[in-house]
Fold Ubiquinone biosynthesis O-methyltransferase, mitochondrial.
Amino acid sequence: MKRTLLLAGRIATVHGSPQQQQGAATGGSTVDEEEVQRLSESARLRWWDPEGEMKPLHRMNPKRVAYLRTCLTKRLGLPPLAPQPFTGLRFLDVGCGPGLLTESLARLGGEVLGVDASAANIQTAIKHSSGDSSLSTLAYRHGTAEGLAAEGQQFDVVSSLEVIEHVNNPELFINSLSGLVKPGGSLFLSTINRTMKSYALAIVGAEYILGWVPPGTHQWNKFVQPTELGVLLQRAGMNLEELTGLAYQPWNGSWSFTTDTSVNYLLWATKPLAQ
């Protein structure tokens, strides 16, 4: 199988499936093939239509970018008003999908690599970004966190948003993400809490009533509670810096930060500097 890589507008192929490479290197895999198939089906949706099926994610993305920018400004003393404050920083987005977050990070000056276990998602991301000169620092790769970690790659900032609820081994996944963060670097995660409220809103409401995503996209038993994620991060050598909730406002279709983490939440963790 071939993996596809796009760097500075050039497409190359790398042989070997990401699952084969990560399995040989780690003896385990976080890839849930059924989940990958489901998410690959979503690549056929109008991902880049802000008024299409992915409208809620388009509305959420500016909040996610703002959260990363605020935390990194605090951590690194970045110029808060600079048009490209991420210049000089190397980003990795694991489970990048068709590239909503990665394109935003690249436009802010970051050198960004987007990785996804779904080849269909990567192809959609490549197609959308191709030929855009403002995205010359953006690259895509069909692969996994475990595969990159096995290669010894490390980044200033690693993000994985709305992904951990789709993997089959959260602890291995967090360990792999931690290994990809440079000492002193940052890790950003977002996911859905495992509560009755999240079942009502994220599954019954979003999938079956509002039809935002296809039924079966989420499995409630795979949602991760903040305390559980905190333990996994601690075991992986990461320090939890901040946790915040994200709430959807149905009356205007926007998202807002909140102290309520019972459904959607974002967190920021850092890796200590090497001793």
Remarks:
- Strands lie at 2-7, 10-15, 90-94, 111-116, 138-142, 155-161, 181-192, 239-249, 254-258, 264-270.
- The mean pLDDT is 84.
- The chain has nine helices and ten strands.
- The domain at 33-271 is CATH 3.40.50.150 (Rossmann fold).
